[in-house]
Structures are given as structure tokens and as C-alpha cells.
Amino acid sequence: MVGSPLSRIDGILKVTGKADYSLDHPIDNVAYAVLVKSTIAAGKIREVNSAQAEKTPGVLAVISHQNSPKLNEKGGIRGGALLQSPEIKFFGQTIGMVVAETFEQAIYAASLVEFQYQEASPQVNFESLASKAMPSKDREDEKRGDARAALNQASLKIEEVYSTPIEHHHPMEPHAAIAEWEGDRLTLYSSAQIVNGAQNSAAKTLNIKPENVRIVTPYIGGGFGSKGGQWANLVLTAVAAKVAMRPVKLALTRHQMVNSVGLRQRNQQKISLAATADGKLMALAHETTTHSAIDEEFVEPCGDCSKLMYDTPNSLISYRVVPMNVILPTYTRGPGKSTGSFALESGMDELAHKLNIDPIEFRLRNEPARDPSNGKPWSTRATAQCLKEGAKAFGWEKRKAQPRQNEQGDYWVGHGVACGTYPAHQRPSSANVLLKREGSVVQATVELAAADLGTGTYTILAQTAADALGIPVDKIVVKIGDSDLPPAAGSVGSVGAMSYANVVNDVCQKATEELIAKSGKQFFARPTAAQLMVSEKIENFQSSVQSEAPASAEEYSSHSFNANFAEVWVHKFTGMVRVNRFLAVTGAGRILNPKTARSQIIGGNVWGIGMALTEESAMDPRWGNFVSRSLADYHIPANLDIGEMEVIFIREDDTASNKLGVKGIGEVGIVGVAAAVANAVFNATGKRVRELPITPDKLI
Amino acid sequence: MADIIFTIYYSEPGQDIDLSVTENMKPFKYTRATDAASATRIAAENPNAKFLAGGTNLIDLMKEDVERPDELIDLTNLTLSQIKALPSGGLSLGALGRNTDAANHPLVRQNYPLLTQAILAGASGQIRNMATNGGNMLQRTRCPYFYEVSMPCNKREPGRYEGASGCGAREGVNRNHAIFGWSEKCVAVYPSDMAIALSALDAIIKVSTPDGRERDISFADFHRLPGDTPEKETNLETGELIVAIELPKSNFAKHSYYLKVRDRASYAFALVSVGAALELEGSRIKQVRIAMGGVAHKPWRARKAEDYLIGKETSAENFQLAAAAEMAEARPLEHNRFKVELGKRSIVHALEMAVRGGKS
């Protein structure tokens, strides 16, 4: 089954509305909570007047910092806003909560709670603050050789700044939870990419034991990093339920999503590259200036790709950060790599053009034999193969080397290429398998606290278990998304598939071994667990295991790699860009299910095209409020913006990283995409846009 | 900040409902009108009432707490959805006809392809299926400062910001805002695509008045510039109801084009749009109409460009000079200077496309 394009086993449930997302969980006697948000970005709450809201029929409680239960602000909930102090640190910070019998009553009463502020001057204008950025506390400068000296001496070089705007995750399912207390025990029905992480941070913040918190998250309507760490809304739902003494539902509105669950910060990335005339890179500097929240640092690692993509004797990676009155930035769609590769791969394209070398050839000339950042051998590195096979499939030889040479009616046509990478790490996870026989029919249940973001985790685990046990896939039940199940890694950082598939395979293999031992027999050919259950007439059998990456993984540098090819049509007069063709070629180890994998890569590609052409959360530089708050303003590409999309996987056998040879595809699909599009726009028009998104105004 | 959800209380026309039990939320009365006369009468009696047709804009704005009517007068039982050929050779679009039906009607496609293109360039299929022709004329701006109740806005809350400008966008994020005809009180743009085509086609808005009369408003006089009263967007009087939109007979079908420039190819409002229509004698311009969207508080007729082109040849140079004449009047804001160049290019390209009969 593994490697076959099985359709999602949860697909029917989803398209018929039977998959219960967090708020769909049926629950009796439920009350509703609604958040109240600040309308200033910096200052203090002087006064709360909740009298009118409290008098409103149906209202059960109005909670602010004045009467909130004491919570542990260092319990692992991200972004603060836990109603513990009168401080206001960003616009739209949660400053109150109303609980009522009905949603309508709660939302109306929330509009009646009055807050008086003592306003401070907000730090929200990145343009004017960027010059004050200081070295990052979390990310030290990384130097090899002397990039500065090499750049100073070089004559063939580029030095350019590439900017990316604030972006938001905006999953289809906004964050929402149901909280239900039974004595000291709390159950939270909520979307969590890291099931056990949500359990621990909720427990610590609420000052209760983790074993008293259960997270139930069977289906997740997307997360893109915003449901990795958990935010105030999760524990505030529990607080509301405690105060109201009954189950409570709390859902964020789409508008509240822009200042409740993190964001991708703005980055100004200076790329400096120097090369010899025959295209050998001599220096690479990647210097990022960005902002964080006013009181806490999070910096996405924009220099990560630059550390290892190319062979160069001199390298410098640095981060400078300025605090700003915005919600804490967080992991977002290929954190650091998607934005960082836009800068690096645009720079590579600029230098290739300057050197008059084909951009594919330029990259091939700088392929590193080992990981330049740590000297380790690659477990596998598919970059060269991705470039070569991609070039063939895409028809790269037809590309005009010089820009503005390919005119089709009212359009300039251009072709661009860019590479990407994302690390591959198997994370510790545990799992149970439960085997059950009725007559000659054996079925199995695999259990682990994994999370399915909607990408196909249920399906690949059923396939893995089916192969490992010798049981048809329709006789496998996959139970995930519940912290009562054996602890497992999160569905974050592209670790899900490889961590989960390996532990499921391990527990199934272990059960088989134990059944062989139990039979006391010797076999010429290893029987399957299913055969043993029948031959040994066993009715029920179960096994558990904990797995982690093999020791060999540490000796290698393990990453997924890709090459992206874009064909754009730029309207000559209006500057509108259409991505007419897009091809992603990826080397990501063993592909467990080519159908769900293809969908996931295409999803990443579309987000990358959005990063290139449309996505931006515009903020008012005076007040710090976002003016793009809905999906009508926050543009994600529509069908008309993109033509044909093609996905190719390079066959790879990478058992050094993990036993099954699986690498992640969750993030690599977006890495290198924006640069491929921007490079194609340059090839089409001769205009180099270094500030995303590439909207029509930048091309006229 | 909070979103407001409403509960609807049903009543028959003229029958009051007891609001005392509904003080736990924002109540409004729901009235189902039976004909235009009753609709206008009820609306004239209650200046805080709003007509409800497709609801694609009004209901959104009520959820955002931007619109706060205390009565909705549902028009969907009125028989105002027909599309009729007029004896004069023109066409009448019923106010309650759906946008999708107007765009696809054979007489519209044949005689007014500019209108078909403009309607189909707006919103999404689902929204066009709900939205009505009359309602489309009354779409409100998508200015984000208008939409967020914690931001200052003279249009949303006239009079509240006495003294100061009160327009959040004037010195805020104003990339999508006006370059023509704005005032210190308001720099918002009008969002409809359909209306840009209607402006170019010199449509007439047929209105039913509360005293039972009908009156005509020429399209140019229908929408207003913001001035000191940005909350007043049209010249409809209290209680007046749009009953039809009339298109005069036109000779533009062969040479017209609607160009919409936007940040993505569908489901986005225009940065700049141009509806261009030409009547040619050989290569000489006998008649020309140019209307622009995304640049002003109302559909912007490019009269200077039109005047320049009458009687001239359809040359690239003439189109450029005409566009330059129009855009010389533009007063861009901090973030929308690009609209001046984009406007020029869009006028020229729309005219060229119109000459080519829409074929690129």
C-alpha cells in the first residue's frame, strides 16, 4: 500500500460534513464566550466599565484583568494577552471576555464593555524603526571565512535588499475551542498541531497537572504554524468554562485572527554574493533586519537556506531585530526558508544574469559535496537532479536568456527557476497497535497522539500499518488527535509523516515479532501479524513502542530539496501577472502516498505564488492596526491566477535519516517558489522586483 | 471591534413587533414589502430603515456593526426582475434582477457587451447569483477604515469627528483610494464594476417615490462625490426606491471593452478599471464614452479624454493624449500615485481593445 495513490480515508467524512472539527463536537448545556480586543497598540487600561454588559440578559460573566483568575504567564502559551495585567502591547490585544447563554448575547454584550486607556506612543512604523534594530538574542551571527573581505575585494558581485511584508496564516478554520471541566479534569476540543504541546502549555498556564488536561483534535482545518504553539484563546476558553461552571465555546472571528495567533514578521534581507567570472561563488552574506513583539523575541531563520545551499569559502548569516507593538511573530509556512529563499534565490538569479551564465548552470557549479554549515555528508541531496530533470520536463532550453525577449500579444512571457530546501528530522513518538480477530478476519487499530492538518496523516498511517501487518487498508483504524493516546511529535516543521510513519511501522513490526515468539514456531518465510493471528487462533493482541531517529541520522545532514520552475505572463500595459505554468521537482525521500503528497506540494506552491504576487497584511503605520483583516483583502491566488501545475518527485532511498527513508514535504513545497516567480517576472519584463508582493503597481 | 450577529423577528407589513423582549441584542424590525408603493411608504416613515434585496453587502455590514438599521424592508416579493426591450430600442433591467441574469441575457450580450463584461469582472459567481441590479448601484465602499468600527470614518459616523478630518485613510493606508474628486472628509472609492459600464452607457435610474410617482435620474447625477457629506452617496431622497435601470439604444456593441486591473485575477476590487465604448466611422471616432472605476467616490466619466477624442482618428497617439489630458487632473494620495500612470495606460489599452472589438 505504501507508495500507492490511495484517496484519503477520511475524505468521505469531510465532504459529507461528518468530520467533527473542534467546535462541531456535540456538547450539552454549552455557553459562549466572545473576546474583547484593544483599540490601541500601546498603553494601559485605566478603567473597565462592565456594568452595562453585566446587566444584559443572558450574560454569565464579564472577565478582564481586574477579575481574571491568576494564570501562569510563563506556561508556554504564546503571545501573552491572558488578561493578567492592564498593559496593552499591541493593537487588537485581547483585553476582556464575555460569557453568555447564547453567542448573540455574548457578542452584543462584548460591544458594551467600555475600556478607558492611558495611551502610549506605539512603536509600529517599521520603516522608521528598522535603523534601530539590534543583534538578535536567539540567533547569533554565523561566520565561515571572511565574507566582508571577500566581498570588498570582489569585482563580480551583487548586493541587494529583498523585502517581504507581514503575512498571516489564515487557515480555513479559525482557532476555536470547547472547554469542559469535570471536577479537576479539563477537556479541550481544539485544533492543535502539537497535541501534547497544547496539553502541556494549557496545563502549566492554568496551574494544573498535564494529566488533568485532555486535548481532542481529530481534524484540523489547516494551521500553517499558527496552531503549533497555542495562544491565549485556548486557555481563556477553559477560564470561561470554569467561571461559568459549564462547558463553553470560544471561536475567533476572521478579523480577530490578525492579532490573536501570531504572524509572519516583515523582513528586510540584504544578500551579498561574489563570484569568479566562471561562476564559482566566493562569498555569501545574508543579513536580515526584522522586528519582533515589544516584549519577546521570535525571529524566523531567513538565513537557513543560505547556510547550506551553495559551496562558498566565505559565509555570513546575521539577524538584527527591533521590538514593535505587534503580536508575537511565529512559525509560518516554511518559516525562514520560504522568505529566506526568496532573497537568496533572487540574488543567485541576479548574479547569474550579471555573469551571463544560465541560472541552472550557475547553481550546478556551486553544488556543495557536503553540508557547508557543519561539514557532514548529505544523507541525500537531490538539488542537481531536481534542476536537470525539471529543466527537461519544463522545456528550459526554450527560455530566452535575456529578459524582455519573449513577446506574446499583449504579454511579456518569462521563465524562472529557484531552489529550496527544508530539514528532515524524525522526532520521538510512541504508538500502540491493537489487533483483533473475528474468524479469519483480522483488523487493527493504531493509536498515537499525532495531528492531521488536513494533509493526509490518517491515510498514510493506514497504508503503513496495512503493509507492516499484512492487513487490508480498510481493516485498519487510525486513532490520532487525542492526548489520551501515546505521546507523539507534532505536525510541525515537516516532521509529522516521518515521525509517525516510522513509529507506526515499528509498533507493527514489534507486534509481529512478539506474535512469532508467542507461537514458539520457526518459519522459513516471515509470516505477517494477520497470518499469525489466524494460525495461532489469537483473538486479541496488542503492542506498544517508542521510536526515535536512528543513531546514523546524527552523522548526516538530512534535508528535502527542490527546484521550482515558473512561467509567467505579464500584461504589458497593466502589469498584472499570471503564473501560466508551474513545476515543482522535489527530492523528499520515500513518498508514502503520491496523491496526497502531490496535493501537499501544490498547496505549498500556491502559497508560494501568493507570497510572490498577492499576500500582504498592511498595517497602519500610525496606529498599528491591520487594514487587511479578511480574506477579501488578504489575497490568496484564485484559480484564474495560476494555470497548469505539475509535480515531480525524484526517487530517493535515504535510510540514513530514518528507517523508512521518509522526509518531510510539509514545508518544502513553498520554499523557493516566490523566487522562481520573481525570477520569471524579471525574465519576462527586465524588471527586478525586490519587494513582495509583486502587484501591478510595481511593474508599470 | 466585536462582530454583531442579529436575530430576525418576522412581522407582516405594517404590523409592529414587541421590541422589549429583545433588549439583549441589537433588535431590528423585518418587514416584507408587497409592492413598490408599500416599500417606499414604509421607508419614508422610517429614515433608519434599509431596503433588503440580495443582501450581499448590507448583511455583511450589519455583521460588522457598520450598518445599524432598525428596520429591514425585504423587497424580494416585488416583481421587479424583468429584462424588457424598450420601444425606443433600449433595454430595461428590473432592479431586482440578479446580476448573473443581467450579464447573460441575450439582449445584453448582443447590444451591451460592455455591461456583460463589467458584471462578470465583479465579485464571484455565487455573489452575482444573489446580488441585484439595483443593489449593485448602492454598494458601499470597501475602505478598511469604513469597515472597522474602532477607526475614525466620516462616512460611517458623520459628525462624530468634528474639527479633525475624521478620515482614517486620508493619511493612512490609502493605496486603494481615490485620485479624483476626494475631499478632506473622505478619500474612499466606489466599488461597483457594473456601474462603470452603466456610466459609460449613459444609463438612467428609474426611481419610485413615496408619493407614488416615478422619476428618472441620469446616471451621471445618481452617485455623489464626498464633499462634506460622504455619508450621502447617491441623490436618492428618503424613501425612494430604484425600480429599474434603463439602457438607451447604443451603437457601441462592436467596439467596447471593460478593463479591470486588480491585485489578483478574480475576486478582488479594481485598482483601476476602465469601461470604454466607441462608435466608429472607418477609423474616425464618431462617439466615445470612457468611465473609470477605482479612482473616485463615484463612477468617473473621463470627459476630458472623451472631448479630446471626438472626431479624431483611432491612433495610439490620440489615445495617449486623451488619457494624459484626463489624468492631468488627478490628485493622488501618499500610497496611490501609481494610479495616475496605471489610469493612463488603462484608458489607452481599453480604447485599443475596444477598437479591436475586445480581441487581444
TrEMBL record, chain B:
Q: Which PROSITE patterns match?
A: FAD_PCMH
Highest taxon of the lineage: Bacteria
Keyword flag Ion transport: no
Q: Which residues form the FAD-binding PCMH-type domain?
A: 23-252
User: Any signal peptide, and if so, which residues?
Assistant: none
The protein's matches in Pfam families, at most eight in alphabetical order, are given as: CO_deh_flav_C (PF03450), FAD_binding_5 (PF00941)
InterPro entries per record: CO_DH_flav_C, CO_DH_flav_C_dom_sf, Diverse_Substr_Oxidored, FAD-bd_PCMH, FAD-bd_PCMH-like_sf, FAD-bd_PCMH_sub1, FAD-bd_PCMH_sub2, Mopterin_DH_FAD-bd
Select a single GO molecular function from the record's annotations and give it. oxidoreductase activity
Q: Which UniProt keywords apply?
A: FAD, Flavoprotein
Protein name, as recorded: FAD-binding molybdopterin dehydrogenase
